[in-house]
Please model this.
Amino acid sequence: MLKVLGRSDSINVRKVLWLCDELNIEYDREDWGRGFRSPKEAEFIKLNPNATIPVIIDADLVLWQSNSIIRYLANQYQGQALYPETAKPRALIDQWMDWQALELNHSWTYALMNLFRKSPDHQDPNLVKKSINAWTENMGILDEQLAKTGAYIIGDQFTLADIPLGLSVQRWYLTPFEKTEFHHVKKYYELLSQRAAYMKWGNNGQN
Model:
C-alpha cells in the first residue's frame, strides 16, 4: 500500500491526499513535520535529503516534491482523465502547475508568514506590502485565465493542475488582509467546492 509521510494540514501534503481521494488510491499516512516528528531526523533524511514533506513510498519507489508526486500518482494509478498522455494538454497542465510553484507560491510567502503564521522573522511592513502586491498581481493572472476558460484552469474539465491551484485559492481567501475581488477566482472556488475531495482537503479551513 502507498505510504504518505507528512502532516495532513500541510498544503503540499494535501495535494497528495486530495488526488488520492479523486483516484480512490488507498494509503497509509504518517505524521511528520511541524508539531510531529522532525523531517530532519536521520530516518527521514535517508528518504529526502531536503528534509521536507511530503514523501511517498510506493513499493520500491521513494519520491519527494509534491508536484512530482501527484504527477507520478496520476500516471501510475489510472489518472489519465486528470493528466492526459497527449502532449498538448499535458504541457498546459504542467505550465500551470509550475507557475503555481514558482510564481504564485513565492509571491505569498512573506505575507503569509507575517499575517497568518505570525513569524518573528517576517515583520518588515514594506516586505509584507511587497508580498501582498505580488500575490494580488498573480491572482489577477489567474483570474484572467479563468475568465477565458469559464470553468477550470485549462478548460471545462478538472485536471491535475486544479489541485495545487485550488489549494492556493483557499490560502488566498484565508489569509487575513484586504483583498481585491476577483470574480472568476470566486466562481472557481465555488466550482471546486462541489467536489467532495476539495471540501475535505481544500475548502476545510486549513491554510
